[in-house]
Sequence to fold (688 residues):
Amino acid sequence: MKSKKKKKIELGGIVAAPKRAQPEPFPDGPVSYIDAIRFALFEEMERDENVFLIGEDIGHFGGAFKATKGLLSRFGPNRVVDTPIGENAIIGLSVGASLLGMRPVAEMQFADFVTEGYTQLVEQAAKNYYRWGAKMPIVVRLPSGGQLGAGPFHSCNPEAWFLNIPGLKMVAPSNPNDARGLLKAAIRDNNPVLFLEHKFLYRRVKEELTRDEGVVAIGKGRIVREGKDLTIITYHAMVQASEAAAQILADEDGIQVEIVDLRSLLPWDRELVLQSVAKTNRALIIHEATRTGGYGAEIAATIAEEAFTELDCPVARLASLDTPVPFAPTLEKYFLPSTEKIVSRVRELLSF
Amino acid sequence: MHTKSIKLESHTLLPTGKIDRQLALKLYRSMLLTYEFEDRLIKLYKQGDLFGGLFTGCGNEAVSVGASTVLKQGDWIAPSHRCIGAHFVRGESLNEMMLQLMARAEGQTKGRDNSAHQGSTERGVISLISHLATSPMLAAGCALAMKQKKRKNVAIAFIGEGSTSLGGFHEVLNFASVLKLPFVLIIENNQYAYSTPTANQYSCEKLSDRSVGYGIPGVTIDGTDVELVYRTVNAAIERARAGFGPSLIETITCRLHGHSAHDGAEYVPKDVKEKWLKRHPVSLYRKTLTKRRWLNKKTDNQIIAMIRSDIENAIQFAKSKSYPPAEDAAIGVYAE
Fold:
């Protein structure tokens, strides 16, 4: 009788990491939003050895969106920590490491998966400083947003889930310089900061980075376009949609729209918003997240409370439908705000 | 009633370390302090001097004291709500503890959080929160930072057998094992998660059996034997310091009080309670030390009297202090 040979199954490994690389040079020419994020990570990790990255597929693979490409070979596995799957533990370990003075930058592969680590963020990270004085210099990067046909689980805009949590900060850049500058500010902040980066913008917007430190203060908005007839208050990829709408309204109707890019969502620039509304007397808040209990509700309530006598028409919101993010292009287009929807909403408000 | 009977073995993590008289008396005194303190807290609670929930660890003293006594300067610990003893071992005074429990302005959480939820970055104590499977992850994060900073330190954490049912228990052990962190997770199996007995909580024989699934050592030991706890945790910590990664230790005890002070725990069968009362870790260790002639009745009485008077002083001290001013509620949410 033949003796049975024991079957052996080998499991796959991974191609060895490249050798130690040189510091990343300052990028020449226009830089994409995702490369601005990547460059900011390089800059901050060169500057402060306590800054480290933690997440899934971020090392050898360079991240699902390549935000961390090249960082492992520059900084080694001690500072670019590839982990098993587990957002709960990624954020939990980040909270713990920060107790010893480390400054973790955790990557959620998609913002949607932050729900797996929600407890660690809202119960631990957000409350520790208030409860026992432990500083929490943590950044959680959240690739957010739709317009990409990615369906209900890879498209979310999670800002409203965190808006009601004292202790957290939240930023949402709309262009490469803000992405770089806000990420640097977030990493230097001694509080947990949610860095909402918009996937639609990753490779669609490019610009030259400013040749300075480039830090953008958290809590400060920016006037993207000046106008006198109506203020659009928005952030993320809706800035570009609003700019396109403003141009159409200027060309076709002679309406001069002012656009405020909030940049920071928590805290947010109340002063800038109220100043602008005092000038234009009309406010339209636009975001990609769903409408009910959405981020815009807070801005709308504040304008109604603080600037009621300035208003010539009701404070309005334009947001996504109150449904999960649908998959088919026809459905997603119907679901999201768009340049066309902005144009028609502004026209309605101007004729109120 | 469904019950479990399990064999206690320690074949994967052999206890190490010698316990001399000085260390033994330190262990005994810490356990006694914990026991006497919590006993007094129950009375304070009934008198209305303490409010909110009061969670005690009667029956668990050998675990919190035995494990935390192994730690050195620079190590970190994530105590559970049954681990008041660990706070004392890490250097917290009775005054500090009372200020915290009585929500005074000078307490460690400045009246912002209840129970033994205090933490200290100086002493390496992680503040407990009520989501019990989250703190072990913070300890694992400390262990990661120690590794990154190339320190020879360790982080240990406690978790109840009830919280082993949460996903966080799995994630922290998997991460700690894959990343080879200097981390030890100690399960305080006190047989009841609020009213839920072990048979309704898990179906494996021993919770330490789960260590196999993470490729790490795991052992189940008698949690009423303080020297066994100390020496087993010592073995796990030596292993972790040497860079071999995490371990899982399950300690079997019995929760002799209710879940919290309002709970009479009538659901615990009388014979179970009586059996485990006879095995209270403080009285067991008193017998051991007396047999070894390391302790006599007179010294014991002196220690008890001193502890009791320290406790009364701390209560008076905390009572004389004020609550935080109301407006303080609004500040200190964000760090500079």
